[in-house]
Amino acid sequence: PLPDSYSPQYVEAAWYSWWEKQGFFKPEYGPNPRGVFMMCIPPPNVTGSLHLGHALTNAIQDCLTRWHRMRGETTLWNPGCDHAGIATQVVVEKKLMRERKMTRHDLGRENFIQEVWKWKNEKGDRIYHQLKKLGSSLDWDRACFTMDDKLSYAVQEAFVRMHEEGVIYRSKRLVNWSCTLNSAISDIEVCSYLHANFDISVMKQEVVVATTRIETMLGDTAVAVHPDDSRYQHLKGKTVVHPFCDRKMPIVLDDFVDMNFGTGAVKITPAHDQNDYEVGERHKLPFINILDENGLLINVPPPFLGMKRFEARKAVLQALKDLGQFKEVKDNPMVVPVCSRSKDIVEPLLKPQWYVDCREMGKQAADVVRNGELKIIPDHHLKTWFNWMDNIRDWCISRQLWWGHRIPAYFVTVNDPSDVDGHYWVSGRSEEEAREKAAKRFNVTADKISLRQDEDVLDTWFSSGIFPFSIFGWPTEDLRVFYPGTLLETGHDILFFWVARMVMMGLKLTGKLPFKEVYLHAVVRDAHGRKMSKSLGNVIDPLDVITGISLEGLHAQLIESNLDPLEIEKAKQGQKSDYPSGIPECGTDALRFALCAYTSQGRDINLDVNRILGYRHFCNKLWNAVKFLCGSESVSDRWILSRLSAAVALCDGGFQAYDFPTITTAIYSFWLYELCDVYLESVKPVLSRTDSEGQKQADICRQTLYTCLEVGLRLLSPLMPFVTEELFQRLPRRHSQDSPSSICVTPYPETSEVSRGQRSSVRMEFVMSVVKTIRSLRADYNLTKTRADCETSHSTLHTHFRLTRFN
């Protein structure tokens, strides 16, 4: 028998393992007239547990996968995890320091990597457990990790091929450098913060320049002014002398200078600023690097040599005052680049790194969107796409880390004193292959070649960029079975960092787009519109929403995290404010439905847990509706079938347009407002009749109600797989040998299944308006708890006839 009330814990306990055991999540091989749907998961980082942003991604992806599966398509949703080089290394280093007071250097490279693998195994298992609890219908036999042997081989192959073609090259350029991490970092790992800074004006002979980074003036090699600035025309071709050394610096004319900002004269430090770097290239200026990898000053005169960068700031300012070259200080709020991982200020540093030449690949990526081969949804993201692709810069792919794919490049030394140019970089799938390449290049025997592999690892986005085809066996022929995919669904915040790289790498290495469509969802924020942040205490584990958790339980999670004591206290206050009684048990189905209901294209999601709880009550309504059929038998009529048909049409259109709010609204309105609130109430008198005519009417109603429940559950199944499976299995179905064993493999409803009655809809709308008026009168006269007679008068015979038919 069906339990009296809905319990998420009861409903969601066993269905997932049964689905998995039955093989419902596996693709069918061979020809299929309904087509193929293939999608790979955006592999979560093994830095920790999944949060509600991941839950949104998986709710959308799973309901799409289930919808395509129910349409009879060969369906594959491929799981995996990302090694997340820099992010994972940082959290493991913090853990080492907190628990053992050790750095990675104390352990050494090999032992440290073993520690990271331990972390990966623990967190990877946790992530997969969370995905299963979310109901994600992934083919787990295909689960992969970006540092698995198969994927690592593909990464190596991609690098070697692109290096041999000259698309990957080595160059000394400005990079985002974290002095704390001792590594280059990507743009996505650089946060911009508005900082109260000061413009310091400095006299340089006849020119006054202003700067907020006074310590970098030790690396100045020129002063720039705008060529049209009349104030400085007399200085054309002249030089100024650096105040702390005998360096003569030319005054250069460059359009980069804004003559209306500050003094109109700008100091140029080519080795420590991107704009200055480009000015230095144009005017062939010297590049003087004044910072080492740890942020200590080098290549500068005493007493600044060896100082820390921010100590030098004070020292240089004082020295300028002593020389009489300091003019004034002004407030100037500015944007400061900060490393999102280490929280230290990012320095532009000149470092030799590996780069990908993105010019041709970027043009291809722009062209496939312009000509319609690749569709990006919603289309307001097209502007961002073209802005990135049309102005793309070469991609720095090397990182000075230990955790990641070690770069398959080798520094060559030829053991022959007669060779003056014996240093070179070669790439290879193995050291032996690299040695053979080097011997051939330098025309010597292999025994005269010495190799040293690059210590650096590849940017995580490099392996992520080939993920859609590396998981299917590239560069082998196995790739043809499921590549290219159908859809890429992810958050809009990684449109360039991941989506663009996959498109570029797919076209470059396979000659094909990795997917036909890209659907971008919004970012999940808390109920106050704040970004999810561990230090704010608003990062929520989806399992805590599913099973519920006390405030004390939330606090305990903070204590076990990597946050420092001050951040923990701040986060506790945030949790106490938002969840004073903890988080109530909502269940997986309610969480999934809420996330999809929030997904209005283009807007960020301010997630309120109370709204999720409301959808748990909705599950209870479903429960009672089916219990009504199972226990007392049920009724319906042409109107409810017409409303069901309308809901089917809206859902089908919504899935095709990735319009999830339309889907959730249509289903919610049908079940709650039309089926439960109106029809289950209206058929109760019919079921209570005992005469033969009444019994005939009741039988007709039961059949129609059964149709509503069965079709309605199938409509809802992609979004709420657990409760719909439970109720579907309990329906008094018309059993046959070919009946599907699970709702997740039944056909998704089509409008042709359900009749539409326009006339019955008009009649029912009229009756409902009368009922609504009567209910309002009862409320106005405080008769809500009284059974009162109601007398109606009719303006026409037609109205009288329409109403008396429903007595």
UniProtKB/TrEMBL annotation:
Keyword 4Fe-4S set for record: no
Keyword list, A-Z: Aminoacyl-tRNA synthetase, ATP-binding, Ligase, Nucleotide-binding, Protein biosynthesis
SUPFAM superfamilies named in the record: Anticodon-binding domain of a subclass of class I aminoacyl-tRNA synthetases (SSF47323), Nucleotidylyl transferase (SSF52374), ValRS/IleRS/LeuRS editing domain (SSF50677)
BP-aspect Gene Ontology terms: valyl-tRNA aminoacylation
Annotated ranges, domain Aminoacyl-tRNA synthetase class Ia: 15-608
Limits of the Methionyl/Valyl/Leucyl/Isoleucyl-tRNA synthetase anticodon-binding domain: 637-786
Any one GO molecular function term: valine-tRNA ligase activity
Pfam assignment, any one: tRNA-synt_1
GO CC annotations on file: cytosol
EC number from the UniProt entry: 6.1.1.9
Gene3D superfamilies for the chain: HUPs (3.40.50.620), Isoleucyl-tRNA Synthetase, Domain 1 (1.10.730.10)
Keyword Chloroplast part of the UniProt annotation: no
Reaction(s) the record says it catalyses: tRNA(Val) + L-valine + ATP = L-valyl-tRNA(Val) + AMP + diphosphate
Membership in a protein family: Belongs to the class-I aminoacyl-tRNA synthetase family.
Name of this chain's protein: valine--tRNA ligase
Lineage: Eukaryota, Metazoa, Chordata, Craniata, Vertebrata
